[in-house]
């Protein structure tokens, strides 16, 4: 399984200038290669290499392997479609491989190629990233962000042996509650929604002011809301996987792919719906579960919040309100999201590929 470890480079002022020049020169080469590819209608990496390699290397003064990486970047950009010419930002990310980048973990530094030759640059990262770097393999992306350089390293992590689950933990994802599991544990979104509302209000206010200091503050605030939401999803996914691992259970999630396009809401609720990062939470749960050897099942969300888990009656009126569930047939009642999580659990148990593995 491939995971990404982010490290922050700590270059000297001279090394910073070299890295800036290198990343700008490489992206200029990418734009030139893209121009030639578009003119000649040559987009496959092998054919593009034969077309532009020597010319691009001589024109931009890049090393052999950096030129190869630039050609690869352009070819990858055209894989999506070939209907428009691709252009690259002056300081867009550039990929490095083992021939032009080497990690020296014992010294906490990297040996990286620049226009001024090889440079030994110190780096820093968290403990989790240190552990991942022990299995670093493949390319690393050099990223320039807010005046700082980062390396995003690809790490080939060994997967855990899948467990034999003794049950299934159902998880309902929502807006009012980020997640509710079939054990009844609620992960409220009250704090997250409050933070998002505050940031929306502050951004709107600063945009109306429009002064230089207001724009500077807007740049300072950029990304803070997304980082807060990402950290929240990391903590919730970690707790869900830890609970499943501790009780030897698989995890069942709703398959909510494309729901933002299918669901219509009132105008004042649109911002809340479209800032709902359920896909990110699902991705975090899936990769953490994979590392722990926990199976993850995706179930159809249809009627999970309208079905009575006691008598099986399906009715729109069963959902008495956003928070409560009350079956119109048998009177069974409870927290609506908890009921949905229980129905998700049963749906996973009854799937053909889960019925033998889970007996909950």
Compact description:
43% of the residues lie in helices and 21% in strands. The protein is α+β, with helices and mostly antiparallel strands. The strands form three sheets. Strands 2-6-7-1-5-4-3 form a seven-stranded antiparallel sheet, with helices on both faces. Strands 10-9-8-11-12 form a five-stranded mixed sheet. A two-stranded antiparallel ribbon has the order 13-14.
Residue share in β-strands: 15-25%
List the strand order in the largest sheet.
2-6-7-1-5-4-3
Q: What's the number of domains?
A: 2
How many distinct beta strands? 14
Helix content: 40-55%
Q: Give start-end ranges of low-pLDDT stretches.
A: 355-360
Order of helices and strands: EHHHEEEEHEEEEEHHHEHHHEEEH
Distance between the termini: 29 Å
Mean pLDDT: 87
Number of helices: 11
Class by alpha and beta content: alpha+beta
The biggest beta sheet reads: 7 strands, antiparallel
What is the global morphology? elongated
Gyration radius, rounded: 25 Å
Protein architecture, described:
The structure is a single chain. The chain is α+β, with helices and mostly antiparallel strands and 360 residues long. The chain folds into 2 domains: 2-156, no CATH class; 168-189 and 227-349, Nucleotidyltransferase, domain 5 (2-Layer Sandwich), CATH 3.30.420. 43% of the residues lie in helices and 21% in strands. The chain is built from 11 helices and 14 strands. It has helices at 13-40, 45-60, 64-77, 127-133, 190-209, 212-221, 224-246, 259-262, 270-274, 278-292, 336-349, and strands at residues 2-9, 94-96, 101-104, 109-114, 117-124, 136-145, 148-156, 168-173, 177-181, 186-188, 250-254, 296-299, 324-326, 333-335. β8 (168-173) and β9 form a beta hairpin. α1 packs across α2 (45-60) and α2 (45-60) crosses α3 (64-77). Residues 355-360 have low confidence and may be disordered.
């Amino acid at each position: 399984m491939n995971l990404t470890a982010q490290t922050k480079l700590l270059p000297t002022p001279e090394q910073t200038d070299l890295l800036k020049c290198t990343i700008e020169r490489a992206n200029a080469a990418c734009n030139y290669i893209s121009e030639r590819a578009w003119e000649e209608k040559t987009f496959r990496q092998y054919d593009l290499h034969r077309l532009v390699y020597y010319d691009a290397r001589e024109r931009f003064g890049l090393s052999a392997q950096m030129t190869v990486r630039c050609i690869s970047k352009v070819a990858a950009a055209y894989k999506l479609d070939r209907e428009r010419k691709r252009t690259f930002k002056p300081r867009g990310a550039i990929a490095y491989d083992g021939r032009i980048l080497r990690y020296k973990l014992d010294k906490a530094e990297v040996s990286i190629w620049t226009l001024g030759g090889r440079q030994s640059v110190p780096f820093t990262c968290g403990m989790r990233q240190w552990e991942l770097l022990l299995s670093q393999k493949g390319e690393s992306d050099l990223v320039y962000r807010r005046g700082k350089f980062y390396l995003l390293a690809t790490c080939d992590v060994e997967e855990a042996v899948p467990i034999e689950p003794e049950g299934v933990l159902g998880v309902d994802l929502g807006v009012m509650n980020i997640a509710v599991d079939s054990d009844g544990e609620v992960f409220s979104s009250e704090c997250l929604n409050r933070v998002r509302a505050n940031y929306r209000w502050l951004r709107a206010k600063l945009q109306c002011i429009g002064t230089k200091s207001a724009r500077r503050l807007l740049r300072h605030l950029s990304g803070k809301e997304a980082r807060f939401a990402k950290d929240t999803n990391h903590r919730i996914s970690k707790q869900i996987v830890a609970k499943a691992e501790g009780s030897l259970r698989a995890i069942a999630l709703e398959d909510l792919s494309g729901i933002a396009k299918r669901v219509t809401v009132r105008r004042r609720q649109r911002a809340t719906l479209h800032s709902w990062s359920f896909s990110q939470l699902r991705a975090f749960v899936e990769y953490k579960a994979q590392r722990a050897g926990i199976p993850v099942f995706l179930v159809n969300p249809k009627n999970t919040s309208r079905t009575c888990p006691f008598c099986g009656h399906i009715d729109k009126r069963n959902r008495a309100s956003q928070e409560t569930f009350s079956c119109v047939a048998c009177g069974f009642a409870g927290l609506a999201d908890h009921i949905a999580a229980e129905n998700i659990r049963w749906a996973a148990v009854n799937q053909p590929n889960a019925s033998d593995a889970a007996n909950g």
